[in-house]
Amino acid sequence: MEERNEQTVEETIEQQEEQVEEQASTEVSPLEEAINELQAKLTDTENRMLRLQADFDNYRRRVQLDKEAAEKYRAQSLVSDLLPALDSFERALKVEIKDESGAALLQGMEMVYRQMMEALQKEGVEAIESVGKPFDPYQHQAVMQTEDSEYEPNTVVEEFQKGYKLKDKVIRVSMVKVNQ
């Protein structure tokens, strides 16, 4: 009977240990769930922080590029406004003068024109060379076509209006006649 009591006691102890383990596992389970939730929130927060950091870096890079472009092309508006005046100067310089006072006026206009062109060149403005060059739709606007045996096909034969570039950007395309 003592053996039976010992077995019963052992069984009771084992049962109590199992109950304690079950209670511990049920108590640990909510703790583990809380830990898992906190780890998931931490991971989510870290991911959001990394995305936010990347967005900020992209924004900073974009602002820097915009700033550089604005600095590089700061004269674009002024150049665009001056181009019609340059065209007028060029047309006036082509007029034939017959008297001395007209010649002095023409000489003064040439000096002003040269000064304007020098100031524009300092800012990076340059005329687009067209005549004799292959037609480039990014730099030329074909307003007429002709057949001339002196020129190769798809070559600019005549320029009606000068085109201009500011640094590497075309401000105004050249209006040209192209050989077929």
Residue windows where pLDDT falls under 50 for at least 5 positions: none
| Classification by helices and strands | alpha+beta
Helix content: 55-70%
User: What best-fitting shape do the alpha-carbon axes yield?
Assistant: rod-shaped
What do these coordinates show?
The protein is of the alpha+beta class and 180 residues long. 62% of the residues lie in helices and 17% in strands. It has helices at residues 2-72, 76-93, 100-122; strands at residues 125-128, 140-146, 156-161, 163-166, 169-172, 174-179. The chain has a three-stranded antiparallel sheet. A three-stranded mixed sheet has the order 2-6-3, with no helix packed on it. Strand 4 and strand 5 (169-172) form a beta hairpin. Helix 2 packs antiparallel against helix 3 (100-122). It starts with a helix and ends with a strand.
Task: Provide keyphrases for this structure.
6 strands, 3-stranded mixed sheet, 3-stranded antiparallel sheet, 180 residues, alpha+beta, single chain
How would you summarize this macromolecular structure in one to three sentences?
With 180 residues, the chain is of the alpha+beta class.
